[in-house]
Structures are given as structure tokens and as C-alpha cells.
């Protein structure tokens, strides 16, 4: 049985071979993109059983998405193949210096038509964590309802709710979406968010203020605050905040780093590691994600994670 359940949209992303404006590009590589499936894959690589629920179109891109996620060892039995809607796609535009702009073609996609009826209570049996992001509930009203129903089902079965607001302003439609993300953040048992997201949702940027708001107003038992090149801070209710230094890396692209951190941190909690070690696992997975141009191709497997945690040098030849 999967230990972690994820739910959200995954797409085919087309990445240009070169840097610069897409209008001048004519060669692209197809890859998988999706915050929730990224985290599920990161967990599977670390030896944790995970599942991904969604909808994909009954088209070549939908089967590509399913094939890629299954190939990484993630259970997809909860994913619906939708004969009436297409699989979403997106394009990346890469600039020199590491900046990436994303262009979405996902309106009325199969995943945006997810509905509560897609969820089956038996799919939640035996899981320890339901992990969601703030991307899914802002895709459509039915997606919002699906997320809320998934949280209800999980809590009914005693499953911990993990949430990353993962704010995507290009997808949001005003105050209703902001209120939804605030509510979900405060309802989660495990919160993993960036400093900018805390500022956007709660108007606070200082670490102590973020922790105060989330612990005082919310239900969080564990919090991880991701701060890019400055590392992260992790804390548990009634515990001290621990600074996790950034893991050394040479970034090519930062997309997928936050999802990798989530996978490493959740894996640490699920395997009984100390809070500090769970934070280090998140930092390692997130850093390695930046060293490839794909979202999840750089995530470590369990053996590599153990070597890096132990400070062992990697042997390449």
C-alpha cells in the first residue's frame, strides 16, 4: 500500500535546446512536469511507496504522462483516463542566468475536470500522508471541491495532511483562491512553503513570524520554510527552529527543487529520522534537482541520499 498519496495535474513540458525567446526556437525536448507527481517520484526513488491521482486525456500526451510516472515506480491506479478532455501541456523559456518562464496550455484540460466522484475511499487505506499543493485547487471549482474532499477522506482515516501552497499567480483568479490556499495551509499537519509564499498568503517574511502564524493559527505539527540559496528552517510544534544550511550545488534550473525538498523531508519524517536529518534530506534532494534541466531527473535514490547524508565523497570514475 502507498505510504504517501498525491493528487494533482501533470503535463508534458517542452523545453527548448537553447536559451532565449521561444519565437526563435525550433527544437524542444519533451519531459514530465507536475508538482505532485514530482514529489511522488522523489519519494519512490527514496524507497517509499507513493501514489498519484489525477485525470489525463485519452491521447498520446496522457499516455506519455502515465508511462513516465509508472516507470519511476509510482502507483497510478487512482488516475482517470478522460476521453473528452485533452492532457495539458506547457513550454519553458530559459534565459541565461537561470531564470525560467513558463507558458501554460492547460485550460479545460482533463486534470482541471477532476471531481470528488473520482476519489475512492479504498485508495486511501493504509496511507500515512496525503500530500497536496496549492496548484490543484485553483485550476477549477471542481478541482477545489476534489481537494477538499480528499482532505476530508484523509482526515477521516487518520491520515496526515501535508501541504505546499506552491503559489502560481498565473493560475489564480482573485481573493477566493487566496482564501482557499490560506485555509488549506492552516488546516495541514505538515506545511512546507517558501518565504515568498508566506509573505503572499499571510503578510510575514521573518522566520519567527512565519512559524508563529502557522503554529498559532494553524494545525501544523511540522513546518519547513524553504529559502532557496539560504537553505531552510524546520520546526515542530513546541520545538526549536533548526536552520538547515543549503547543500552545495551548481544550479542549471531551479524548477522542481521545492518538490524535491518536499519528497526528502517527508521521507525523513516517514522513516523516523530526526527533524534535522529530515530537513537535510529535503535540502539534498532539492539541491540535486537544480543540477538538471528536468524537474525530477536529478532526485537521488536511497543509496545516494545515505552517502550524501554521511558526507561521503562521490566516486565518478
Sheet/helix structural class: alpha/beta
The proportion of residues in beta strands is 15-25%
Mean pLDDT: 93
Second-tier CATH architecture: 3-Layer(aba) Sandwich
SSE order and pairing:
Blueprint: E1 4-7, E2 11-16, E3 28-33, H1 35-45, E4 50-53, E5 55-57, H2 60-71, E6 80-82, E7 89-94, E8 100-105, E9 129-133, H3 141-156, E10 160-164, H4 175-187, E11 190-194, H5 195-202, H6 207-217, E12 222-226, E13 232-236, E14 242-244, H7 257-270, H8 275-289, H9 302-309
Parallel strand pairs: 1-4, 1-9, 2-7, 5-6, 9-10, 10-11, 11-12
Antiparallel strand pairs: 2-3, 7-8, 12-13, 13-14
Give a short synopsis of this structure.
This protein is α/β, with parallel strands linked by helices and 317 residues long. It contains nine helices and 14 strands. It has helices at 35-45, 60-71, 141-156, 175-187, 195-202, 207-217, 257-270, 275-289, 302-309; strands spanning 4-7, 11-16, 28-33, 50-53, 55-57, 80-82, 89-94, 100-105, 129-133, 160-164, 190-194, 222-226, 232-236, 242-244.
Describe the structure.
With 317 residues, the protein is α/β, with parallel strands linked by helices. It has a single domain (4-308), classed as UDP-N-acetylmuramoyl-L-alanine:D-glutamate ligase (3-Layer(aba) Sandwich), CATH 3.40.1190.20. It has helices at 35-45, 60-71, 141-156, 175-187, 195-202, 207-217, 257-270, 275-289, 302-309; strands at residues 4-7, 11-16, 28-33, 50-53, 55-57, 80-82, 89-94, 100-105, 129-133, 160-164, 190-194, 222-226, 232-236, 242-244. It has an eight-stranded mixed sheet with strand order 4-1-9-10-11-12-13-14, sandwiched between helices. Strands 3-2-7-8 form a four-stranded mixed sheet. A two-stranded parallel ribbon has the order 5-6. Helix 1 (35-45) crosses helix 7 (257-270) and helix 7 (257-270) packs antiparallel against helix 8. The mean pLDDT is 93.
Amino acid at each position: 500500500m502507498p505510504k504517501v498519496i498525491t493528487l494533482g495535474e501533470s503535463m508534458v513540458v517542452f523545453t527548448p535546446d537553447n536559451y532565449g525567446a521561444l519565437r526563435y526556437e525550433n527544437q524542444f525536448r519533451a519531459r514530465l512536469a507536475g508538482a505532485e507527481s514530482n514529489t511522488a517520484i522523489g519519494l519512490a526513488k527514496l524507497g517509499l511507496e507513493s501514489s498519484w491521482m489525477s485525470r489525463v486525456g485519452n491521447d498520446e500526451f496522457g499516455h506519455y504522462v502515465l508511462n513516465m510516472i509508472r516507470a519511476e515506480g509510482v502507483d497510478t491506479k487512482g488516475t482517470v483516463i478522460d476521453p473528452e478532455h485533452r492532457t495539458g501541456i506547457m513550454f519553458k523559456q530559459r534565459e541565461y542566468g537561470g531564470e525560467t518562464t513558463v507558458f501554460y496550455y492547460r485550460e479545460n484540460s482533463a486534470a482541471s475536470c477532476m471531481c470528488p466522484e473520482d476519489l475512492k475511499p479504498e485508495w486511501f487505506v493504509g496511507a500515512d500522508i496525503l500530500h497536496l499543493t496549492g496548484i490543484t485547487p485553483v485550476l477549477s471549482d471542481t478541482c477545489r471541491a476534489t481537494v477538499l474532499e480528499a482532505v476530508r477522506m484523509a482526515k477521516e482515516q487518520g491520515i496526515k495532511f501535508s501541504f505546499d501552497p506552491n503559489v502560481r499567480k498565473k493560475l489564480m483568479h482573485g481573493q477566493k483562491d487566496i482564501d482557499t490556499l490560506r485555509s488549506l495551509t492552516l488546516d495541514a499537519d505538515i506545511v512546507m512553503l517558501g518565504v515568498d509564499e508566506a509573505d503572499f498568503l499571510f503578510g510575514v517574511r521573518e522566520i519567527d513570524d512565519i512559524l508563529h502564524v502557522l503554529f498559532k493559527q494553524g494545525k501544523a505539527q511540522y513546518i519547513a520554510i524553504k529559502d532557496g540559496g539560504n537553505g531552510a528552517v524546520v520546526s515542530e510544534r513546541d520545538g526549536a527552529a533548526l536552520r538547515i544550511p543549503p547543500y552545495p550545488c551548481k544550479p542549471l534550473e531551479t524548477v522542481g527543487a521545492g518538490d524535491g525538498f518536499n519528497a526528502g523531508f517527508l521521507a525523513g519524517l516517514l522513516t523516523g529520522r530526526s527533524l534535522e536529518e529530515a530537513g537535510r534530506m529535503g535540502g539534498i534532494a532539492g539541491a540535486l534537482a537544480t543540477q538538471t534541466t528536468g524537474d525530477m531527473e536529478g532526485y537521488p535514490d536511497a543509496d545516494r541520499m545515505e552517502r550524501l547524508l554521511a558526507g561521503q565523497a562521490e566516486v565518478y570514475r
